Amino acid sequence: MRSLSFVALILSLIAGCGTSQQTGLTPTEAVKYDPDAMTEAAFAQLDKNKDGTIDGAEMNACPPLKKLKGGKGVTKDDLKARFESYTAGGRDSVVPVGVRVLNDKKEGYPGATVTLTPEPFMGGGFKPATGVTKDDGFAELRVEGATGYGVPSGFYKLTVSKKDAAGAETLPARLNARSQDVREFVNDGRGGGTPITIDAGSP
């Protein structure tokens, strides 16, 4: 198996940038948000000491929560309001997501499967979105069973995988099997977002 120790894998997730015109989910595919149920599930999952606040080390399991109140503890009211904001003002909750994977020579890295898996507290109506990079290293993510590209606003774990002919993983485990890379995707109403770059480093 070819070593990837020389590969600097750069992953750029670009919301609304470079994606197909066929974006979004049809009305029948769009998820329904239940802020109360999602909040209760999130606290059951993350509030380990059951003090009614997600704070300190508890936030390490869901890093985006650190931005919600500038690193301060997140209450149930805070998180519920965040979930409610996803569709505030009739806003479409779908966020187009494009992915580019590059190697250390800045060339496209083909054949890598990128997956966004919704956090358990998002609820059973949310499904993973996947995409496989083409020769130019670019992939668009599509929710399982959807006709269009993109993911509903929410919290997702990001993984990147590429296996060899024998089925062995060729990318670092921290990008797939041990990934703790949870991110929040939100439609900002402008169809855009801040690109995210990840350097895989050495296996």
Structural class: alpha+beta
Strand tally: 13
Strand order of the largest sheet: 9-7-6-11-12
Helix content: 10-25%
- How would you describe the oligomerization state of the chains in this entry? single chain
Instruction: Please state the CA-atom Rg, rounded to the nearest Å.
Output: 17 Å
Shape: globular
| Average residue-wise pLDDT | 79
Number of domains: 2
Runs in which pLDDT lies below 50 for 5 or more consecutive residues are 1-28
User: What is the N-to-C order of secondary-structure elements (H for helix, E for strand)?
Assistant: EHEHEHEEEEEEEEEE
Strand content: 25-35%
Can you walk me through this structure?
By secondary structure, this protein is an alpha+beta fold. It has 2 domains: 10-32 and 89-199, no CATH class; 35-85, no CATH class. It has 3 helices and 13 strands; from the N terminus they run E-H-E-H-E-H-E-E-E-E-E-E-E-E-E-E. Helix 1 (35-46) crosses helix 3. The protein is globular, with a radius of gyration of 17 Å. The two termini are 13 Å apart.
Layout of secondary structure:
Blueprint: E1 10-15, H1 35-46, E2 53-54, H2 65-68, E3 74-75, H3 76-85, E4 94-95, E5 97-102, E6 113-118, E7 129-132, E8 138-140, E9 142-143, E10 151-152, E11 154-161, E12 182-185, E13 196-199
Antiparallel strand pairs: 1-5, 1-13, 2-3, 4-10, 5-8, 6-7, 6-11, 7-9, 11-12
Task: Summarize this structure as a short list of keywords or feature phrases.
single chain, 203 residues, five-stranded antiparallel β-sheet, four-stranded antiparallel β-sheet, globular, disordered N terminus
